[in-house]
């Protein structure tokens, strides 16, 4: 089963939408969406599902990075650096 890059982004958006239901815990909807992308695929290939989802999440994150960069009038590299510093402090 061949999918398009936009399929991966749509799946990433569906997953993140379900994540919004309960960002601090895995909701049933989140687990259902994740399972449907990995284990319940029509082609039965969970590895292909994982790759498609990772690529979709990468594309989604990139688009959100560009959008945030434009919103705060800062280069994308600076926005990433801010996140790096935020998460570096959590170790």
Walkthrough of the structure:
The chain is 73% helix and 0% strand. By secondary structure, the protein is mostly helical. The radius of gyration is 15 Å and the shape is globular. It has helices at 5-19, 28-38, 46-72, 76-88. The protein has one domain (5-88). α1 (5-19) packs antiparallel against α2 and α3 crosses α4 (76-88).
Write a concise keyword list for the protein shown above:
73% helix, 4 helices, globular, 91 residues, mainly alpha
Order of helices and strands: HHHH
Q: Main sheet, how many strands, which sense, barrel?
A: none
Q: Provide the helix percentage.
A: over 70%
Distance between the termini: 41 Å
* Number of structural units classed as domains: 1
Spans where pLDDT lies below 50 across 5 or more residues: none
Write down how many β-strands occur, each being a DSSP E stretch of 2 or more residues: 0
Q: Give the structural class.
A: mainly alpha
Q: What share of the residues does DSSP label as strand, in percent?
A: under 5%
On the 0 to 100 scale, the average pLDDT is: 90
The best one-word shape is: globular
Radius of gyration: 15 Å
List the helices and strands and how they pair.
Elements: H1 5-19, H2 28-38, H3 46-72, H4 76-88
Helix pairs in contact: 1-2, 1-3, 3-4
Concise summary:
The chain has helices spanning 5-19, 28-38, 46-72, 76-88. It has 91 residues and is mainly α. The protein has one domain.
